[in-house]
Amino acid sequence: MDADFKNRFIRLWDDYFPGAELPMGFYYADRDCGIEKKKKTGNHSCLIADLSAVRRGKALCFNKESIGCVGGVRCCGFPCDQRPDFEYFLSCGIPGKVEGIRYKKTPQLVKETQNRHPPFSAPKSTIVFKRWDSFEEMDNPDAIIFFAAADVLAGLFSLANFDEGDPQSVIAPSCAGCASVVQYPYLESQQPVPKSVMGMFDISARPYLRADLLTFTVPWSKFQRMVNHMEESFLITDAWIRIQKRLKKRLTGDTT
After folding, report:
1. DSSP-derived secondary structure for 39-86
2. For the segment 222-244, what is each residue's pLDDT rounded down to a tens digit?
3. How far is CA 8 from CA 4, 27, 162, 231, in A?
4. Is the pLDDT of residue 254 over 60?
C-alpha cells in the first residue's frame, strides 16, 4: 500500500469522521508473512469476535484450521463440510434431533437461499486482517471493513454512491456476518463495477458487536475512488458539518 495514500486517508477520516473507528482490511496470502496466526481453542468461536483484536490494532491471520466456526471457514472460502441437516438447523429444526434457530421459515427456503449464494473459493491458503494504520507497503488489501454506527454509516453510504448512477450500488445480502465482511466483498472485488456491502445483520454474530454497530465493506478499487472523492463530495457542505459536530460530541465526548 502506498504510504502517502494511507496517511492521506487517516487525515481525511479524522477530519470528516472525528473520533470514528479506523477500518480494517483483509487480503489472502500463501503464507503467514510473519503475522501472528489466530490459535484455535478447540471450542466454537465466532470470527467476528476474533476480529475484535484486529479492531484494536493487532494484525492476525487465519487458515482453515485456525477459524473456530464451520460457517467462518466456509465464508472465508476454505473447503469445509457442511453440518448434517443444516437446512433444518437454520429453519424449524427436527424434534429430538436438531434445534432450529428459525432464520428461515422452511428447510426448502434454506436450500433455495444456498443455491442462490455465489460459489466462493479462497484464492490462497491464508487470510490476513489488519487495521488501516497497520498496513505496510507490501500489503494489497482486497477490501476495507468499517464497523460503524448510524451517522458514520450514512456518510459511507452516501460517499459510496457519490460517483454511481446505479441506486443499488450498495447491497445488503442475507448471509452470515462473516460472509458480509469477507465473501461478498471479495467476490465484488472481482467485478468490473464492484458494489459495497452492508452487513452484520446476522443475529448469531451480533452479540459480539456493540449494539449500535453495523459493517460497511468496500472492495479496494471502489474504496480508492471514495477516498479520492472525499474533498469534493457532500463532506465539505454545511449538511455534513452538522453531522460532524454530532459525531464529535458522541464519539469524543466533546461538548463544545
Report:
1. PP-SS---HHHHTHHHHTT--EEE-TTT-S-HHHHHHTT---PPPTTH
2. 999 999 999 999 999 999 999 99
3. 6, 21, 19, 11
4. no
Asked whether 247 and 19 are in contact (CB, 8 A), the reply is yes
Give the Cβ contact number of residue 51 at 10 Å: 27
Domain residue ranges of the chain, discontinuous segments joined by +: 3-79+121-252, 80-120
Mean pLDDT (the chain) is 92
- Cα–Cα distance for residue pair 30/9, rounded to 1 Å: 28
CB 125 within 8 A of CB 63: yes
146, 181 in Cβ contact below 8 A?
no
CA 64 from centroid of its chain's CA atoms: 19
- Helix (H), strand (E) at residue 244: helix 238-252
Residue 118: predicted pLDDT: 84
Among candidate residues 75, 6, 68, the one with its CA nearest the CA of residue 37: 68
3-state class (DSSP) for residue 249: helix
Task: Identify the DSSP state of 246.
Answer: H
CA 100 – CA 88 distance, rounded (Å): 6
pLDDT classification of 251: cutoffs 50, 70, 90? low
Give yes or no for a contact between 233 and 162, defined as CB atoms under 8 angstroms apart: yes
